[in-house]
Design a protein that fits this description.
Helix content: 25-40%
Number of strands: 26
Shape: globular
Strand content: 15-25%
Largest sheet: 7 strands, parallel
Number of helices: 13
Structural class: alpha/beta
CATH class of the largest domain: Alpha Beta
Distance between the termini: 44 Å
CATH superfamily of the largest domain: P-loop containing nucleotide triphosphate hydrolases
């Protein structure tokens, strides 16, 4: 690794969800990894699951690129920090290339992220059920935004024989129409390397049987049928990022407390934004992972608690049967332990949760209500939280940004904030605050209002100074 080396940037976008972006990104990462390149990975948008697959390939967290959560300048700084020392950063797009926050414009889309971050794009085209029509599809994508970042095309789900016939036709059409876009190969259908899906997208990496073997198969196929040299050349053509002088995060020299924040991390709770945890670390916190599924009690000597989202409904029975952990969490929160819980973590704090099997299971019971299954996305997408009153971590007149995406709902969702959609045309009450606990379905970005994280840390510090850390009940 060479910290002075210029980092190449490549964004793998797609014509739509399910076109194979994640498989191709994972295959490329593993292939370049085997070549000895120092790598970093990113995901456009607020998705949690795809970055977990990136992490399984590289062994380091992936970064979310999001222009709703981050102003362009901050996003550039965060990307520069994340990719520092890497030879290549590979980003994965979200949905279709031009799909953004609304149907009216591509704002917030992969195309906007590519433009702001000056990332060359390889567009993945799913060829399922198509032949010559691929040309018409490409014409639309390339000519909708003529000054765009698309530099290469990857065909997915196509046989080698079909590619041999179609590739010359596509290349001729690209030349004749003046597009500086190259074909970068194809990937065939690979049933033995398929990454399956469920209601929130792909299943979790831990649930994929023989995942590492599948990643190796994808890498071998990428070496055989993708033009890795061309993609690397395109990535290296990305200009230097203009990030400004000040980096994101706390100013140097600021005295920081030494705090221990327990963070739920296991099969049931695993949806974290890397930047949220990084900000807490910058504020002086040590992140202490623990498992509500497998550990008996909360870690010793903690000053705060984060309960992330995930799939608690898949493990409702096991979570319920871990009575000692439920009691440890309940008594610690009753004792004043500061906590931020979102989505699945919010449901864990409720009295009951409906499992995937339709049965109701006891949870911690710190908050009233029960979580239950629905069959639709009742509240979906980006939102801005506006507190209706002065709250512990969020003050009246402030906002913080986040998103919701869940098929489970709750009988009591709280009313301390108003969640407002980006277009302002829809809003709803949400979020609970009880003692020093802030909880709700919204996944929030601390970077969109760092004061939220600072107040959370401040509450943890105040508790530590009062001598309460480490004496939580239930241990």
């Amino acid at each position: 690794m060479n910290d002075t080396k210029k980092t190449g940037r490549l964004l793998i976008a797609g014509t739509g969800s399910g076109c194979g972006k994640t498989s191709i990104v994972c295959g490329l990462l593993r292939a370049y990894q085997k070549r000895g390149l120092a790598l970093a990975a990113c995901k456009c948008g607020p998705d949690y699951i795809d970055p977990l697959f990136h992490e399984k390939v590289l062994g380091i967290p992936s970064e979310n690129l999001d222009l709703f959560f981050h102003e362009p300048g901050m996003q550039k700084q965060l990307l520069e920090r994340h990719s520092r020392g890497a030879d290549l950063v590979v980003a994965e797009g979200v949905m279709g290339y031009y799909d953004g926050m609304s149907l009216e414009s591509p704002k917030g889309s992969t195309s906007e992220i590519a433009s702001v971050l000056q990332m060359p794009v390889a567009l993945v085209v799913s060829c399922r059920g198509m032949g010559h029509s691929v040309l018409a599809l490409l014409k639309g994508y390339l000519e909708y935004e003529t000054a765009g970042q698309i530099r290469a095309v990857i065909l997915n789900g196509i046989t080698g024989r079909t590619y041999e016939k179609l590739a010359p036709v596509l290349e001729q059409w690209l030349r004749e129409n003046g597009h500086a876009v190259r074909l970068a190969g194809y990937l065939p259908k690979m049933a033995d390397a398929e990454l399956k899906s469920r209601h929130l997208g792909l299943i979790l990496p831990e649930e994929v049987e023989a995942l590492q073997e599948k990643l190796d198969l994808l890498a071998e196929q990428a070496e055989e049928t993708l033009d890795l040299e061309l993609l690397l050349q395109i990535a290296e053509e990305a200009p230097d990022l203009e990030t400004g002088e000040q980096e994101a995060g706390e100013e140097e020299g600021t005295e920081k407390p030494k705090l221990r924040i327990a963070a739920a991390k296991d099969e049931a709770f695993c949806f974290y934004y890397k930047d949220n945890l990084e900000l807490l670390r910058e504020l002086g916190c040590e992140i202490v992972p623990f498992s509500p599924l497998h550990d008996a009690v909360l870690p010793d000597g903690i000053d705060g608690l984060i309960l992330a989202g995930g799939y608690p409904e898949l493990y409702a029975k096991e979570l319920s049967e871990n009575v000692s952990m439920r009691e440890s969490v309940l008594q610690s929160l009753k004792g004043g332990l500061p906590c931020h819980a979102e989505c699945g973590g919010f449901l864990y704090l409720k009295e009951e949760l409906e499992g995937e099997d339709g049965m109701m299971y006891p949870m911690t019971g710190f908050l009233k209500g029960r979580g239950y299954r629905t069959h639709t996305l009742g509240r979906f997408g980006y939102l801005t939280l506006e507190p209706k009153e002065e709250l512990l971590f969020l003050k009246r007149g402030e906002t913080i940004r986040g998103h919701e995406f869940h098929y489970w709902d709750c009988t009591e969702n709280g009313d301390r904030c108003l969640a407002v959609k980006p277009d302002g045309q829809r809003s709803w009450e949400c979020m609970e605050e009880k003692q020093q606990v802030f909880a709700g379905f919204a996944h929030i970005s601390y970077d969109s209002n760092p004061a939220f994280a600072k107040r959370f840390v401040g509450c943890c510090l105040e508790r530590r100074e009062k001598g309460n850390a480490g004496d939580d009940m239930g241990k």
